[in-house]
């Protein structure tokens, strides 16, 4: 039966008739908008099916955990430094053993055993710089060109440096009165140790003999030193030329005032200059002060990070200029004592010049009490001595 309007109540499909109202065409749904390839995957049932149970949440983008990455990096760096330090220490220990073998047993027997660790017990270390000049006129000269007594005071975090003029006239056991540097000439490091201990009444616990001929190689090995020169210096000390005529025309070594970077050769010359043509008042006393300045700069460089990083390569070379009884651990303790020292006190003995000798001053005994920490530190007093003794507080002017 036909419906009003002549419309048929059905539509024709290839598969046959279907009764009912003809659906109106609506907006395409989301399913129709999806790509054909995506719909085909859904039809086979494998793409949407996630197995039994609730559907899992979609994955979030992977986030980098920076705290974990930083921790791993720090652990790697620490392990590298530990391994590097261990290798450097083994190389350094080998060099120390060679330095121990170079010190005569007789010199070791002249030392007073210390009462404990350098970090906890006051310790006196005698530093002797032997003169091995390359000049032909001084080839056989084996005097101790530099004499410095280093005393640690760990309870007060202090270091004392006592400079002893090499021309100071003292009593040498078995030889009588003579210049103190003669002790090394006639009896080697053993007699030099006994002489210094006898005059200062300070027991010497350790000994370091520095060969000045190889001292410059040590400075070159650590990359040179930064030294602050207090005033200009010009000196013909130790002329490098063979003929007197050439040395006569040579103006001499020159050092300008201010901070300078010195290689081993210039640092060695600087520490050994006795006469300054620009200042006639300089003497063996001022030379000793420069010697302490170079030693302090070298010790600071040896304890620096740059030397630590090069230790596996230069650890053995650092000990070549030395002969000592100190072990590798004691060297490390001495370096740490210097690092943590809050105050450095530089002292010197003095007296009156009598030609080539220096007659000891009565105030030398007061200076020794200062070094022992039994008296307040006092600067050199304006006495009648040519070289007044005394102490100064502060670090040396070196970079």
Give a quick precis of the structure.
This protein is α+β, with helices and mostly antiparallel strands and 399 residues long.
SS-based structural class? Answer: alpha+beta
> Into which percent range does the helicity of residues fall?
25-40%
What is the arithmetic mean of pLDDT? 81
C-alpha end-to-end distance: 117 Å
Q: What is the C-alpha radius of gyration, as a whole number of Å?
A: 41 Å
Low-confidence stretches: 134-139
Largest sheet: 7 strands, mixed
- Number of helices, counting only DSSP H or I runs of 4 residues or more: 13
Number of strands: 17
Can you write the helix and strand succession as a string? EEHHHHEEEEEHEHEEHEEHHHHEHEEEHE
Strand order of the largest sheet: 13-8-3-4-5-14-17
Please state roughly what percent of the residues sit in beta strands, choosing from under 5%, 5-15%, 15-25%, 25-35%, 35-45% or over 45%. 15-25%
Any key phrases for this structure?
two-stranded antiparallel ribbon, 399 residues, alpha+beta, seven-stranded mixed beta sheet
Write the layout of secondary structure elements.
Layout: E1 10-13, E2 16-19, H1 30-33, H2 36-43, H3 66-102, H4 105-109, E3 124-130, E4 144-153, E5 158-163, E6 169-172, E7 176-179, H5 182-200, E8 206-211, H6 212-221, E9 225-229, E10 233-235, H7 244-249, E11 253-255, E12 258-262, H8 264-272, H9 284-302, H10 305-309, H11 311-314, E13 322-324, H12 328-339, E14 343-348, E15 351-354, E16 357-360, H13 364-371, E17 390-393
Parallel strand pairs: 3-8, 5-14
Antiparallel strand pairs: 1-2, 3-4, 4-5, 6-7, 8-13, 9-12, 10-11, 14-17, 15-16
